[in-house]
Design brief:
homodimer, Arc Repressor Mutant, subunit A, Tetracycline Repressor, domain 2, 2 domains, DNA-binding
Chain lengths: ~200, ~200
DNA sequence: CAAAGTTAATAAACGCTGTTTAGTATACAA
DNA sequence: TTGTATACTAAACAGCGTTTATTAACTTTG
């Protein structure tokens, strides 16, 4: 009996359809504009139908947030070919901040907004994407210190510090808190700050 | 004729009343719960009355955000008596992060939420609180470098880096992105990270 | 003092939001 | 063909920020 398989498939296709509409609307106009009703409108179903496939809005945007991590991880794959751990760290920072610059709404959802974390809480799940990303950073930091490219310090301390710095920079920019610097000054100030920070962590 | 003065005074008192209700609700339950209708309820006026004293919700929460900066600046006054610039920087970091820990909702409004920045945009004003706070940091950094307590680097680069690090730490914690570290590990990891970061900036 | 003008306050509505409920078709199984 | 399970939705609920029209009170003027 292939009927239940087809139904399963159709259910997944519908879920994908909803997700894709949510993703598109979100990327286009941000979280505020991506309402359940507009998602429903776009796929030409009623709002109530959405709730047959997703528990609530948080769950939809948790899915979008996961897709964001997929995009970030895809960009990170280029790291594997870099031999030198410190160069890998440098490139990781570049990728991370470029991602925030290219997809501010996605970055916002992944690292600033509350919605996707609320979805985790309800399902009693771990923040696996976040764990994986942070673990990537930690392993690079470990290699840097092990190789003697980075000053001797606790791996977790270094990883948390570097992430905090990068996230601070990205989130201050995204949430419009860098008004004290004119845009053209920021264009040099931000790369300079990153370079300077790497210099401080580097050994010698 | 003292009538117009009295009216002026009453107008200000009403504005204060609304502001105080907004502040209390916000501190108690956060931004989501502090709706115009609940503010109106609390002071026993109709929601429409609020709009006679504030242009919109953003303007109310811009006022709350300014009050937050007042509280932060009050805490910063203890810095003046510290002679050594690097100790002043250390203390500033401590005050900044303690503030974020003590008043997460206020910190959120001041440095993460979009609402108060939207209010600025509409009035075409500058982010004076932010400018003032950042200038305080910059002057301390300038003194540190001038005195030879901090490694030689551009003042703006150092100030932006330190702020980004501190804000990154605070905002990751407030927006629940540090789940990869159990709370008791964070209790030591965060102070260690701050100490380590200061060590990296310190000369010698 | 009464009439006119000004101001403060609000009830009700508008157009949104996320979510739930009850009911209707349709597709499948017996 | 009949009965049941499934997919879907119209309508409603309860909330939101905000605006409009109206009332009530107070102040000024003739």
């Amino acid at each position: 009996m292939g009927i239940s398989e087809r139904k399963e498939r159709e259910k997944q296709e519908m879920k994908d359809l909803i997700f894709q509409a949510a993703m598109d609307l979100f990327i286009e106009d941000g979280y505020e504009k991506a309402s359940i009703r507009k998602i429903a409108d776009r796929i030409e179903y009623s709002p109530a139908t959405i709730y047959l496939y997703f528990k609530d809005k948080d769950e939809i945007f948790h899915a979008v947030h996961e897709k964001g991590f997929e995009l970030l991880f895809a960009r990170m794959e280029t790291l594997a070919v870099i031999e030198n751990p410190f160069q890998r760290l440098q490139k990781l920072g570049e990728i991370y901040l470029k991602f925030a610059y290219d997809h501010p709404e996605l970055y916002d959802l992944m690292f600033i907004m509350r919605a996707p974390m609320e979805a985790l809480k309800q399902e009693n799940e771990d923040w696996n994407c976040g764990f994986k990303a942070h673990n990537g950073l930690r392993e690079i930091v470990r290699a840097c210190i092990g190789q003697g490219d980075m000053k001797t310090m606790d791996v977790d301390v270094a990883a948390l510090s570097i992430w905090s710095f990068a996230h601070g920079l990205a989130s201050l920019a995204i949430r419009n808190r860098l008004k004290m610097y004119p845009p053209d000054q920021l264009d040099t100030l931000i790369p300079d700050s990153i370079e300077n920070m790497l210099r401080l962590f580097r050994k010698e």
